[in-house]
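As a representative case, we now present a protein record of this kind.
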Amino acid sequence: MHEPSADQLSSWDRTLVWHAFTQMAEHEPLIIERAEGCVLEDIDGNEYLDGISSLWCNVHGHRHPHIDAAIRRQLDRVAHVTSLGSSNPTTIELARRLVDLSPPGLKHVFFSDDGATAVEVAVKMAFQYWQQRDDPRPQKTRYVALGEAYHGDTLGSVSVGGVERFHAMFGPLLFETLRVPAPDPYRTPTGVAPENLLQHHLDVLRDVLAQHHERIAALVIEPLVQAAAGMIVHPPGYLRGVRRLTRQYDVLLIADEVAVGFGRTGRMFACEHEGVSPDFLCLAKGLTGGYLPMAATLTTDAVWQAFLGDYAESKSFFHGHTYGGNPLGAAAALANLDLFEQEQTLAHLPAKIARLREHLERMIQLPHVGHVRQRGLIAGIELVRDKATKEPFPWAEKRGIRVCDHARTEGVLLRPLGNVIVIMPPLVIAMDQLDRIAEAVAHGIISATA
């Protein structure tokens, strides 16, 4: 059978492949055929710098020889082993490495497929924990989450999510969640001075926990940065304060580090910045270096113990994924972790973080850039119609998309979050490549807001 032509592939991509978060009536195919390092190449031979790490997951670049070789070696052994009662050496070793790397107290690993399922696992585990621990508290069935939170697209993760435009349609299918406002330093509550923002939001959370803690199973949070919310960067100390309050009111803490884990914030895990150990740590995206779908939910010995008992007690965690703990994914993940050590990935980040900050400081001077925010090698540039009033552009005007369309003409591939332009390149991005990405964004903003 002959290979399909570029025209055939484009036609099939328009009509057969249903793309996520995409209006298919307007879809214009971009078909990536190969990649090397931080550069992607489409079927027409056009090259693009990967300015968003292939949706926030690539870490060490595409086709890294060490990760490629690890997957090939695993292929010569076994490609898949079910985790329902069986295991394999590669996955077991990965569990050991994750426990050793993660914040203190996280001693057990449940493998699944992606970020949404990692959160779904934590939500269900937290619920079941309260039902069957030695002193059950069956009334603890509710969850607290932040405004504009995004934790994935399964029904449980959508229930704790808070992005109205994504999730409003599914309201009748979801369970009720207690919602506290996101601590957004740019769009602060009326009458709250910037220096009082942290305490204000911790006070709001304290009031919710004080009133409802006897019914709350867990609080779910993206540590430091709410990614899909528009890269909202929380004020320093918020995560630490959340951990203190959840402990005070006996509420479990689920840390969703799907987007912010594996070096994105400058440390291996975002929780490390504030010395926080959650009760659940949800990982995906960068876990395999952006190679294969794999996720992990880490938890404590206290949670683990609540699921132990005789078979007849039916305390098992009745949840599983066919490809959970897949050996190929585990091999990629182990190689990914090797590279953090071998190439001293985190040690090379401060200079890149500083260079990105310099670019953002120039962009904030542009007339329609209302706010720039950064944590590590994660950045968001928010476009506004009116800088003084912070009036946003109507989302239907697609200003963010227009910026990214322009950047693509300069050989940079990006994807916006509404009016927020996201820069989140692979951690191995070179300085000159980072400069090219930032320059393309700046030119795109000027073009799209003229």
